[in-house]
């Protein structure tokens, strides 16, 4: 599969992850891929779409955050290895 960009947003708590996902999906034409949780309750949400849509979605939660945003990033034109790792995580979480 081809991806124009990945958007990543890290928050604390699964409930906050859902708030962030909802806001980003409503903001622009992006698709949810997966999320990953770590110790301490941190959750990183992964979305995809074209670069401008992903950037708009990530900026929407940074500019009008529904909760505390720990970190965020947009990866345009992700490498094959980055795609493989993300797809494996999505498959583990049964999102793909």
Unreliable spans are: none
Q: What pattern of helices and strands is seen along the backbone?
A: EHEEHEH
Largest sheet: 4 strands, antiparallel
Specify the helix fraction band: 40-55%
Strand order of the largest sheet: 2-3-1-4
What distance separates the N and C termini? 12 Å
Q: How much is the radius of gyration in Å?
A: 12 Å
Shape: globular
Number of DSSP E strands? 4
Number of helices: 3
Keywords: Bacterial microcompartment
Protein name: BMC domain-containing protein
Family: Belongs to the bacterial microcompartments protein family.
Organism: Blautia aquisgranensis
Description:
With 96 residues, the chain is an alpha+beta fold. It contains three helices and four strands; from the N terminus they run E-H-E-E-H-E-H. Strands 2-3-1-4 form a four-stranded antiparallel sheet, with helices on both faces. Helix 1 crosses helix 2 (51-63). The mean pLDDT is 93.
Describe the structure in brief.
Its main location: other. It contains 3 helices and 4 strands, in the order E-H-E-E-H-E-H. It has 96 residues and is an alpha+beta fold.
Features:
single chain; 96 residues; alpha+beta; 4-stranded antiparallel sheet; 32% strand
Write the layout of secondary structure elements.
Elements: E1 5-12, H1 14-27, E2 31-37, E3 42-49, H2 51-63, E4 69-76, H3 80-92
Antiparallel strand pairs: 1-3, 1-4, 2-3
